[in-house]
Write a structure and sequence with these properties.
heterodimer; A: Four Helix Bundle (Hemerythrin (Met), subunit A); B: mainly alpha; two-stranded antiparallel sheet; two-stranded antiparallel ribbon
């Protein structure tokens, strides 16, 4: 993983003050903002939950626990794919990226399944607020997952295309910009997975 | 993935010659130079001109409802010509009146004083004043303008649909706004859905722009530019961006819930609604929840509006009175204090919602605490111009006018912050007077000061000084004439279509007509500013020389050549050695930041 002199200089110049690449720094700030969004939604839930006249309590369907396990698996495979990229094991990298993509799709399907179960429990979207909040928050989180999937798909297409071109692969590994982008993608997945773990724990503690 | 020019620049080395990357940008077309530009200077002009367009629209709306308020019994046949069914017989309809005040508020608060103000000056000043070639991500910067533009188009479209634009107040409170129902279609139908769509895009714009500003200020400063050598404009714009990043998501959450209620029949904000004798199925929601989410942005929003003006005024006052800013550190700390306090005072907008009085007392306390940093700032501005050699240019006049407005409006804030008094004054013209003076007019004054001051930086020409002075005096006197009397219209509720029918308020009719006349005059003065702006772009007095520093200012933006270029500086980026407010020190009138210290010289 040798950087050319200029590229080293570039990274040094732009991280002089914070030690983080500016674009990564921007992503972290974006994460703060996204977290505020989910914090606002869960605060809204807390406020309404205090209203005992209208709150219909129920036990959270267990499928959300399974989806939590799946999303944690996504984080693990994403991280593993980044590590294999750094070690120039491109076949492993491609496979892991693809597995992550599939797992994340599976997570979304499980969330949809969770909606079905809620509906069968007599909690449709426009029913009691206790159910509506689950639909609302899972759908907003799901949108963030879809965003991540779209960008992952772009990476996947590039990765599969470069399969038969070792020179392209070599060039991409010495290109710090490409690695930076991948690191940012993985960070985003860790973040959005952590948000779901937070949301799951929040639901688990409040719906019982 | 975008390839950011900042990375390209870097590959040639931070201090490389600009020709290195000028090559990359040689083949600029009209489209990449003026429309989908990634250059922070062009984006800043795009924000300013879009903001000016909205300023004129928003002002025009206020003139329309002032016609109704000033002469409630008259008819104006020309209104029917232009507005059709909204002003049948030359009289503005009650529904349209509500739409006018709603859109006036939305446009001025968000599209002019947020998008137009911080969009313009953050884009123009951050790279110039910290010594960067451009933003951290010019691409995201461009994206943020086009989100703003799309939001603008959608908001503007809502004026031209059959059921009219949103009419439920700029605060968009449910339950009225929380459902789609033919009975309340006027102002709460499609127009309101467009309002929500426009606001959602606007919020995305604010978040994208904000994270870019923060990243740029913290990462892209030139050599020697430590945080305590930053001009106060940059401090203010940095804090503004942080406030926006942390508070806008709450509004987004609020409007998402609202749209769920409207489109998917959930009941987050609705409970037991009866329309035309029918009980609708909504159960369990509460509009108070929306108020919490709304004001968690809504209050920080006023600081998003006023903080950039603080920064601009601090800079302009120091430059034009040839004195160091008084209490630089205190200025930074008070900005920080305002940033923190802005997040824990939102419920002072909700004292009459049945808020627990003990909670009200806490919010009163925090609200009144804001008076301390605000007073420190006012004291320091006065300290800065005290015994200075003031050059009364248009920019300086507007900056001084800002201080005057901020004091007048701020004092009534202390009155309104007390829950016990606010319960009496809530939703009266007293509140209208307070916020128009302290964040409306004051923020506009800050913006005008900035435009007159940095116009030479933007276009290489001056704005016309005579027109500028006329603009200032008419606006200053006019604004006081419009808003000061509102303090004394005791108990008169705001948002009323007409108050002549109430015995108690009959005696205000002449005063209302007077305010309307002045409002029209002040509006014309703003048109004068617009004319001056566009005239000066082409015919204004040119700056002399290749490198001009027209106000003899210390900051880095004047070390760049008059001719604007991609990358800002033709050679190396200047290195910073000094504090930006070294005026009348070391035996010099001014000491630009990039001049190395000579033996025996000291900087702040």
């Amino acid at each position: 993983m040798e950087l050319t002199l200029n590229e080293k200089k570039l990274l040094k110049e732009q991280t002089e003050y914070t030690g983080i690449h500016p674009q990564k720094f921007g992503l972290y700030i974006g994460m703060a903002s996204m977290f505020m969004f989910f914090a606002a939604l869960t605060s809204a839930l807390l406020i309404k939950m205090g209203d005992f006249r209208v709150w219909q309590n129920f036990r959270l369907p267990v499928i959300f626990l399974y989806s939590t396990i799946v999303i944690i698996a996504v984080s693990v495979t994403m991280q593993a794919s980044l590590i294999s990229y750094r070690k120039a094991k491109f076949t492993l990298f491609r496979t892991l990226l693809f597995v992550s993509f599939l797992l994340a799709c599976m997570f979304l399907l499980m969330q949809l399944q969770g909606w079905q179960i809620l509906k069968q429990m007599g909690l449709p979207l426009a029913g009691n607020l206790s159910g509506s909040f689950i639909y609302l928050i899972t759908s907003m989180h799901g949108l963030h997952i879809v965003g991540g999937l779209v960008i992952t798909l772009v990476f996947l297409i590039f990765a599969i295309r470069s399969r038969k071109d070792p020179i392209y692969e070599l060039r991409s590994i010495i290109n710090p910009k490409r690695q930076l982008n991948l690191e940012m993608l993985v960070s985003y997945w860790h973040f959005i997975d952590a948000v779901w773990v937070y949301l799951y724990l929040f639901f688990y503690l409040n719906y019982r | 993935m975008e390839t950011s020019p900042s990375v390209e620049h870097g590959v040639h080395g931070h201090h490389d010659h600009v020709h290195g990357h000028a090559e990359h940008h040689h083949e600029e077309t009209f489209l990449t130079k003026y429309v989908f530009s990634q250059d922070h200077k062009m984006i800043s002009k795009q924000f300013l001109i879009t903001g000016m367009f909205w300023g004129v629209v928003g002002g025009l709306l206020s003139i329309l409802f002032r016609l109704q308020l000033g002469w409630p019994n008259e008819t104006f046949p020309f209104l029917e010509t232009f507005l059709g069914k909204w002003a049948e017989g030359g009289k503005i309809s009650q529904d349209f009146y509500l739409a006018l005040i709603t859109m006036h508020g939305t446009i001025l608060v968000f599209f002019v004083l947020t998008g137009g103000l911080s969009g313009t000056f953050a884009n123009l000043l951050i790279p110039y004043q910290i010594g960067a070639r451009d933003m951290a991500s010019p691409f995201i910067n461009m994206l943020s303008y086009w989100f703003f533009f799309t939001a603008s188009v959608i908001m503007l479209l809502s004026f031209f649909i059959q059921t009219g634009p949103a009419a439920g107040g700029w605060t968009a409170y449910p339950p009225l706004n929380g459902m789609r129902n033919t009975a309340i279609d006027l102002g709460s139908g499609l127009g309101f859905d467009l309002w929500i769509a426009g606001m959602a895009l606007f919020i995305i714009q604010a978040l994208l722009a904000g994270l870019n500003y923060v990243t740029t200020v913290l990462n892209m400063r030139t050599k020697g530019m430590t945080m305590m050598k930053l001009p106060l404009t940059i401090w203010a714009l940095l804090f503004t961006a942080i406030v926006g990043i942390l508070s806008f998501p709450a509004l987004l959450a609020g409007v998402v819930l609202l749209e769920f209620d409207r489109l998917l029949d959930t009941s987050f904000y609705l409970n037991n609604i009866i329309i035309n004798g029918h009980l609708l199925g909504y159960k369990g929601g509460s509009p108070i929840l929306f108020e919490h989410l709304f004001w968690f942005l809504g209050h920080p929003e006023v600081y998003i509006i006023i903080l950039p003006a603080f920064g601009i005024v601090s800079e302009v006052l120091a430059v034009h009175s040839r004195k160091p800013i008084f209490g630089y550190k205190a200025m930074v700390i008070s900005l920080l204090a305002i940033l923190i306090l802005s997040f824990i005072v939102w419920a002072h907008h909700m004292f009459v919602t049945g808020l627990n009085p003990n909670l009200g007392a806490i919010f009163t306390l925090f609200t009144l605490l804001i008076a301390i940093p605000s007073a420190i700032k006012v004291f320091n501005w006065i300290g800065t111009i005290w015994r200075g050699r003031i050059r009364l240019t248009s920019a300086a006049l507007f900056a001084i006018g800002f201080v005057s407005m901020f004091i007048s409006g701020g004092l009534t804030g202390i009155i309104l912050g007390n829950s016990s008094i606010d319960i009496q004054l809530h939703d009266t013209m007293f509140v209208v007077a307070h916020f128009h003076i302290v964040m409306g007019i004051a923020a506009f004054f800050g913006m005008f000061a900035g435009v007159y001051h940095w116009f030479p930086r933007m276009y290489g020409r001056f704005m016309n000084e005579t027109l500028g002075q006329i603009h200032f005096y008419v606006t200053l006197v006019g604004a006081y004439c419009i808003f000061f009397p509102m303090h004394f219209m005791t108990g008169l509720p705001r948002r009323y279509y007409s108050y002549g029918n109430f015995e108690t308020f009959n005696n205000f009719n002449n005063l209302a007509s007077f305010m309307s006349v002045v409002a029209i005059i002040v509006f014309l003065a703003q048109l004068l500013f617009v004319v001056n702006y566009f005239y000066s772009i082409f015919k204004g007095q040119k700056l002399e020389g290749e490198y001009a520093n027209p106000w003899e200012s210390n900051t880095l933006e004047w070390t760049a050549p008059v001719e604007r270029m991609h990358g800002n500086w033709p050679g190396d980026i200047p290195t910073v050695y000094r504090w930006p407010y070294d005026y009348s020190t070391n035996g010099n009138d001014f000491n630009p930041q990039n001049i190395p210290l000579k033996p025996g010289e000291a900087t702040h």
